[in-house]
Design brief:
Length: 352
Amino acid sequence: MLSKKTKYFLSLLLFPLLSLIYLPSCAYYLLNQTQGQIHILLHRQPLAPLWKRKNFSKHKKKIQILRKLRHFATATLGMPTQGYRYFFDTQGRAVAWNISAAPKLELTPIQWWFPIVGEVPYLGFFTKEEAIAAKYQLAQAGYDVLMREVAAYSTLGWFDDPIFSPMLENDIPVLVETTLHEIAHTHIYIPSHGNFNENIATFIGEEGTKIFLKREFGKTSPLYREYLTILKDREKLDDFIQQYYQQLDQLYHSSLPRKEKLQQRKKIFLDMTKEFSRIRKKFQSQNYRYFLQIGWNNAVILSLRRYRGSQRTLRQALKKHHHNLKRFIHYLKKLSEMEHPLQRLKEFVRQN
């Protein structure tokens, strides 16, 4: 019988080998990804020995929170995990960098196909240099592009995901949410449904975090109240994005000449920047300066909707499950095995 470590490395080799069979052009990318994942597996460290190191003491409180969270995910949410028993230090760097792109006059993401996971609306890179090169190549091809840092990611249950050092730089509410988000991916993942996968993980992460913080610290605690403020600000951001998404969608589907559409879109993004500069003062948890720094484009808007576009529908569906998150997660698992899951979810919400 193969050891667990042997199975890990055979699994890693499976992706690039399949790519050579099905899509030779993606083999180089997947081989680089394999190399990066092997590096993480070889250099992650068990938590027990680290516990005794003085320079690790600053992380102890958050590590203890994650230990409780693993039990919470299993007992309360029905999402057992073998992850987060190891630590990987990125030495101050991001874990990875994601690149997403979209045509100038379409609110449709560029998709990349890979074996097993199907189509995905982004590419991940373990080195910043490769991500920058990919961003430049897509921009030169005429696409809107977004490049963003990643603090954590899920291997969808193929490996025991470690605690990445950037995760511990977050405040406790965001740390809890991020971890539950990634655990959710290991239980619910639908090939070629990137937006739906991310919306589900976002929803489970947020709802699970509310329950965990209330139980662990109390509903009057600063941490719980802080997190509720974060969620309210996100809803304001959702409304803002939806407003301009509709304007751009109407423009792109109009009969105007391409040149006129490009001019009009430039005006919309300028208006968007001005309006966001005004309303961001109303956000209480953070000022979202990030969006002013990177600038608005189709890829940025689609990235936000990728994680939040179906949140209202999911909230309505949870209400139909009497706000029982564990039962709702079980429903989502069943839904993920069916065709047209988002359509089925919307039909479920419309039912009396």
